[in-house]
Amino acid sequence: MSTSKIPTQGLTALLLLCATLGAAPLAWSQADSNAAARPRSVAADAIIVIVNDEVITRNELEERKQAVERRMKAQRVALPPAEEFRKQLLERMIVDKAQLQLARENGIRVDDIMLDRSIQRIAESNKMSVQEFRNQIEREGTSFARFREEIREDILMQRVREREVDNRIQISQAEVEHYMEVETKAVLEQQELNLGQILVRIPENASAEQINERRRRVEDVMRQLRSGGDFAKIAATFSDASDALKGGELGWRMKDRLPELFVDAVANLKTGQVSQIIKSPNGFHIIKLIDQRTIAVPKANPAANSIQQTHVRHILIKVTQVVSAADAKRKLLDLKERLMNKAATFEELAKLHSNDGSAAKGGDLGWIYPGDTVPEFERAMDELAVGAVSDPVESQFGMHLIEVLERKKDDVSQERQKQIARQAIRERKSEEATQDWMRQLRDRAYVEFRNEDK
Predict the structure, then answer these.
(1) Which one of 178, 198, 271, 303 is separated from 151 by 20 to 30 angstroms, measured CA to CA?
(2) What's the pTM value of the predicted model, to 2 decimals?
(3) Whether residue 169 has pLDDT greater than 50
């Protein structure tokens, strides 16, 4: 099973996310030509951008603008000048549109059951019931139906980014060994940093003239910051990063999970200070050290090095345009009934029915460490007794029937330590890899501006 851990911070951030809103219908209406009354009109709509084979309309942009303004005011992020704000929003909508198109092309989908569970987790993270959460959303001026679709789109974009970016990150053995050596020498403290960034992106295959133009732009940004300009407002105005409209704030992250370029840039800064201009393959960056804190790490003890492993197997039925989540669940319930009646073995059914690569091995996934699989699968697995078979469990991969074969406690082996090191390095590299991928996606999309947006 090609499982990967789903970042949990993305779901909390969804509350602050304002995704693309739906288009309004054709806006002009006119009285009958024979009538004496003057033509009556309502708010006009028009296509302002074509992105590949889809469009963004003026009304979509206006709805998005209102939603983002509400969110920025709630976060106390100063709004940029109106024209720059409009450009930022439109650029973000173009990139979002391209990501959603790619998700559809790759067959990535989020059904209603999965969406309901995501919204339930968001509500729980805010210590509300789903109904209380819904009431809060609607009090803030957004219909709950619209909010659901925004969440669906955000999950789709998150998944397509993970799929595309993971393939771009290369980790060498030397990097793993260096990380492990540094970590074993580290003091029993870990630092978390909250950074802000302003990115002036350099287009793919940029000419010398384009690079110089972007350099002049970031130098102008730096002059504004040195003159006392507000970092968050300037980020919202000029930054090409996906976090621009959050004031450029990346949020709290462990120091060893941040790009080394960013960590080095703020190494000698005090809280509130900004770095010099730094250059990466994606463009020019200015980094702000918004805040920092130290987290104590408990002293090592033998029990801390002991981890529970679970030997597990599963049958996976993928949810597709042909097979709905309800169909997959129904099929797995039928298979479980056959197991309970001893009409077939788990191994036989997995080989015949599972859509996973483990089917040839009777669904056997081997020994699983905590964090090796997606949260929904892991929670269900941990609740099972040895020898027990779950009810159908839904994850991003489809519907699973899970059987726990055995469990054991194991010391954190050298190989496991290497896996932990690789994960930390992957997270460290993901920021730059994501920005690089989004830059390429934007540069390769067919984008045509209409009317005043040329």
Answers:
(1) 198
(2) 0.58
(3) yes
